[in-house]
């Protein structure tokens, strides 16, 4: 079935596979303070405070602008959730640190408990 406007079969235009679009790594710092503030519904001053108190330390552009990765945005989101529950910033920071330590220990335990198939 040809489409006279295109000079070729109509299904050919739809059937061509598109080249996959690469998505950036979650650790790539892409987002500005304003973008993150809008995403999370927080004030830019709050994000600067997290940086000054070394709770979340974003990457800095050559011009000195803060840039946040998706991982840092998730971290900020977790912090704001704990603050909403009534914790202090120091308490929320410590809980996140402990959760990260537990995750590392669980991965180490899993590696020891379940050795790779080549060692069996």
Structure, explained:
The protein is mainly alpha-helical. The protein has a single domain (27-113), classed as Multidrug-efflux Transporter Regulator, Chain: A, Domain 2. It contains five helices and four strands. A two-stranded antiparallel ribbon has the order 1-2. Strands 3-4 form a two-stranded antiparallel ribbon. A hairpin with a 4-residue loop joins strand 1 (2-3) and strand 2 (8-9). The longest helix has 25 residues, at 89-113.
Uncertain runs are: none
Percent range for β-strand residues:
5-15%
Total number of strands = 4
Helix run count? 5
CATH T-level topology: Multidrug-efflux Transporter Regulator, Chain: A, Domain 2
Percent of residues in helices comes to 40-55%
- The helix/strand class is mainly alpha
What is the total domain count?
1
| Strand order, largest beta sheet | 1-2
Reading the helices and strands in chain order gives EEHHHEEHH
Gist?
The chain is mostly helical and 120 residues long. Helices cover 52% and strands 7% of the residues. It has a two-stranded antiparallel ribbon with strand order 1-2.
Note the topology.
Elements: E1 2-3, E2 8-9, H1 10-15, H2 33-40, H3 44-52, E3 59-60, E4 66-67, H4 70-84, H5 89-113
Antiparallel strand pairs: 1-2, 3-4
Keywords for this structure?
120 residues, mainly alpha, Multidrug-efflux Transporter Regulator, Chain: A, Domain 2, two-stranded antiparallel ribbon, two-stranded antiparallel sheet, globular
């Amino acid at each position: 079935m040809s489409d006279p406007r295109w000079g070729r079969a109509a299904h050919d235009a739809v059937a061509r596979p598109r080249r996959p679009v690469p998505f950036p790594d979650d650790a790539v710092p892409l987002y500005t303070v304003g973008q993150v503030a809008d995403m999370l519904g927080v004030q830019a001053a709050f994000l600067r405070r997290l940086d000054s108190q070394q709770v979340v330390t974003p990457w800095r552009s050559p011009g000195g602008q803060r840039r946040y990765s998706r991982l840092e945005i998730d971290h900020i989101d977790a912090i704001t959730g704990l603050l909403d529950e009534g914790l202090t910033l120091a308490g929320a920071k410590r809980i996140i640190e402990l959760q990260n330590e537990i995750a590392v220990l669980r991965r180490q335990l899993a590696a020891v408990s379940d050795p790779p198939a080549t060692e069996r």
